Amino acid sequence: MVTKVWVLVALLSLACCSVPVAGQDFSASFYETLGFYIRLAEQKPIDWNYTLYLRHVTGEVQEPCYSQSAQLNTDMTAAKEYAITMLDSSGKFHPSGLFEGQWNDFGSFKGCRDRVKYAEDMPADMKPMYCIVVWEGIPPELAGGNTVFAQGLCVPNTCSDSEVGLLATTGLLGIKSMPSWTVAGLFCQREEEYSSFDTGAIVAICVIAIILLMLLIGTLYEFIINVSYTEEKMKSIVSSKTGRVFLSFSVYSNTKKVFNTYQPPGQLPALHGIRVISTLWIIYGHTDFFADNTLTTNRREKNEWYSQWWYFIRGSMDLSVDTFLLLSALLVSYLFMKQLKKNGGSFTGKDLLLHYLHRYWRLTPVYAFLIMIFVCLTLYMGTGPVWASPSNIAMSNMRGCQSWMWTNLLYINNWFGDCFGWAWYLGVDMQLYVIAPGLLVLLYKFPKLGLSFIMILLTGSMMATGLIYHFLVNQVGGEQYFSAVYANTFTRAGPYMVGLLLGYILFKTDRKVPNTLRTKALMLAGWFGAAAVAVLFVAAPEYIGGRPYAVYDSAAWRAFDRTMFSCAVAWVVFACSVGYGGIITEFLSWSGWVPLSRLTYTAYLVHPIVMHVYTMSLKTPLFYSATNWWFYFIAYSFMAFLCGFVASIMVEFPFFGLEKLIFPQRRGRESSKASNNVANEGHDNQALELQLPEQAGSFPDKLVNGEGNEQLAGAVPKNKEQFDNKV
């Protein structure tokens, strides 16, 4: 009995090893707790007949697993320290909060993995292993929205996953909750799987090491030439190809580019705010989406959270993607028209090739780099009860990348495979970008014909969306909404066509409208109309149709919602661009948006990785509350932009610098020949080429300050006088 007391003292004090306690007086509750553990071990409902049948008749349970499991059970009843600790680390069925959905008990992952191994009476050949067993058969009347009970088990690592499932069913391992329950799923954490890096991880680490070395060399190079040489000599050095290569990797220069907030005259500054807000909107929606990939203790309350008045932010979050399609097309159209004007309407095959090459170069390096990080290194970023579980979305994406990563690099990943799943947008945007030059050349040379083609595609996109939704998605056993509609290039073309038209309108009007009373009345009416459309398609679906979001089952609604919402955003951009945005223009054009706007592409690419790592490494289930979810959103947003900044400094901005050395300048995009008319046509060259390059980037069309000048040193004007001098 004294030995048992000492064991329990060590257990309850969370000591790493047994500590003798002499002359210690124990409370009555101490002995009650000790008795509880002993009775728990003695009264385990074990089906010995089935256990022996599995061992000696079918052979499904091998001798090493059976003998250590039987020894563990015996040592539990003898109150040995390691056995009691393993029992304590296993989940139990405690009927509490079942109506709210609390059908899980993870036990103690850390207790099983870290504490047990330090017990003095631990057998030399016994090593603990943590498993999650998912039981089915729970009563639906009491489930609170759940369908299974998840239980953590601390078991000997000599058992395979199948053996753990069988012996858990017999009650020998852990404590079986109900006799009628059966194992629906099981996953065991094996330390040896992550104890050393595999080949892919080693290659990824080497690539990162090379990049870090280049960053160090580039930064030291810039420091040395600034300290050691005169200004004239320094200009000579930085204008050489060698100097420009090294400076492309300078952390100091690239960081200045990121955080420079100067906005040259003639820019479209409202796009900064729209871009950042849309990215934050996506992150908020994914905060909930990725949380659904793990367990929640109050599932019933979580399932009812649509009753919150602000749920529309989550419910309509995917419309933010249409905002980016709109902005991407707007910038492509506006820049392309300016290029055609400077070239006298000429657009050759070489121009087209450079048009595609520049885009591919700007998007792909950091994209491929983050895919490499995700596929090769994510497995080594954490541990937890459900870490690297095969059922996790992250794991299915990693497996998909082994076969389908080439589709991402060709930007057809929205049609094939399941690698880096959230990057489907890049595939859609790139495919629309490929067809844009043909439409824009027509629109420039034959406006009526080009407008007709764009309107046909816009109308066809809406009709196709409605028809596909009605005949394929809404049918019993129909196609999945994501593959059939959500990530379909043609059903997403509507907002892109609206963006092409908006860019053409801004080009033709030179971002000016008559300053008349009639214009003011029309602009005011436009604001009311845009606000009404935005409210209708963003907030109203929660209240239309008798139940929240019932209207989403309507093919007619699905046919119009994305294109109409993009029209509302297009109005905001147009009004702010022509000087009728008022306080909204001031808000969206705030200089504080500018650095974040440059990081939205990488923040979008990296934020699901951050979410996967966090949710997979949770040691306990999540507890849903509105406050918790908002704090998760804030934390995710901070980490997304922080990691996005690191990715931009390591890969994105260096490759922007190398782009000028590798590819010839496109005709009509020469940054040194900015026009100087009243409307700041230099926006296309110095300001717009620096700030709004035609890339898919924020997600695609993001601002990249300092990329238009032939010399990296001094590329960014510090004030209006310097900008005017450059022009």
UniProtKB/TrEMBL annotation:
Domain of life of the source: Eukaryota
Keyword Transport found: no
Keyword Transmembrane helix listed: yes
Residue ranges, annotated region (Disordered): 698-727
UniProt cross-references to Pfam families, sorted A to Z: Acyl_transf_3, NRF
Keywords: Membrane, Signal, Transmembrane, Transmembrane helix
The protein's name: Nose resistant to fluoxetine protein 6-like
Signal sequence bounds: 1-23
Nose resistant-to-fluoxetine protein N-terminal domain: residues covered: 62-190
